[in-house]
Structure formats: C-alpha cells, structure tokens
Amino acid sequence: MEHERNVCGEFDVYLKKIERTLKVSMIARDGSIKIIGPKAYVDKAKSVFNNLIELSKRGQSDYRAERGLCTFIVIYIRRRQDT
After folding, report:
1. CB-CB contact of 1 with 14 (8 Å)
2. For position 53, what pLDDT does the model report?
3. Angle at CA 83, nearest 5°, toward 20 and 71?
4. Is residue 12 a contact partner of residue 66, using CB atoms and an 8 Å limit?
5. Within 13 Å, how many C-alpha atoms sit on residue 67's CB side?
6. Which residue, of 2, 33, 39, 73, is most buried by count of CB atoms within 10 Å of its CB?
7. Cα-flanking dihedrals φ and ψ of residue 62, to 5°?
8. Residue pair 66/77 in contact by the 8 Å Cβ criterion
9. HSE-CB for 64 with a 13 A CA cutoff
10. Are 9 and 15 in contact (CB under 8 A)?
C-alpha cells in the first residue's frame, strides 16, 4: 500500500491529476484501485498507474512532483500511441 499512497499523493492529489488528464474516475480503497470510464481511457489509466507504481517500487520518486507527473503522462501516452 505504500507505493499506492505514493502514486495517489496526499489527499489523492496525484490521482486527481491522472483522472483529469486521462478523463476517467479513479477510486482508491484499501490498496486497490477502481477505474471508471471509456475502455480506451481506462486501459491508458491502468497502464499509467501501474508504471507509476513500478517507479515507486524502484525508488524513483521524480514522478511525485505535479509537473513531472503531467509530463510523464503525456510522454507515456504519446509513446503508446506510436506503437
């Protein structure tokens, strides 16, 4: 749950940023996350969230800054669209 808390941020501030950017609703409860929205957006949000969890596990906390999170999301989505 530590990594989920890192990704969600205090008062879910980072989670809300992901929601707004990817146009989904995300509900974090007891170490799990529920993502609601159009399938394509839900898939992107899951992928972004899982990648942020992996960064947290590796101790790479650069994503925690709001600006860094936005940049990460945009770059990640663009890379996924190019493949």
Report:
1. no
2. 79
3. 35
4. no
5. 0
6. 73
7. -60, -30
8. no
9. 14
10. yes
CA atoms within 13 A on the CB side of 51: 16
Measured in residues, the chain has a length of: 83
Q: Alpha-carbon distance 11 to 14, whole Å?
A: 8
52 Cα distance to chain centroid: 6
Specify the pLDDT at position 3.
Answer: 73
Residue 70, burial from CB neighbour count under 10 angstroms (0-12, 13-18, 19+): middle
Tokens 């996924």 — which residue? 80
CA-based nearest residue to 69, from 48, 54, 83, 50 = 48
